[in-house]
Amino acid sequence: MLVTLAWGCQEDTIRGPRTAAPDAVPLEGYPNVLLRDGLSRQLVMLGRPDIKQPTPSTPMSVRVRLRSTASETVMIRYRFRFYGVDRQVLTQDPVWYTVEVPATHDRTFEAQAIQMTAADWELEVAYP
Fold this sequence. Notes:
4-stranded mixed beta sheet; single chain; Immunoglobulin-like; extended; mainly beta; about 35% strand; 4-stranded antiparallel beta sheet
């Protein structure tokens, strides 16, 4: 008589909940300027963002220049978000601003954090 023992081959009948896998992209790999809705084909960044780090008396401020490569005026909306040291959101429900960028011209976008603890930022640009 042949007896086969297969304890290690039993099917797992208790399935636990799945969790999110860790992001393969490090936090430093994410861009600060997010161009939504295909705007990356119509807007380019001029130079590097001008970032004023916080001092004991002033919070962080940011200036970003974007230029239109489109052949006509582009209507866009934008908003800034500021984050703390551990990437906690400091700007709840930031206001969207709407502007137009004439063909082949540039526009400067700037904002200053409200909280003195701001350590990182993000500019989001989309169509209205």
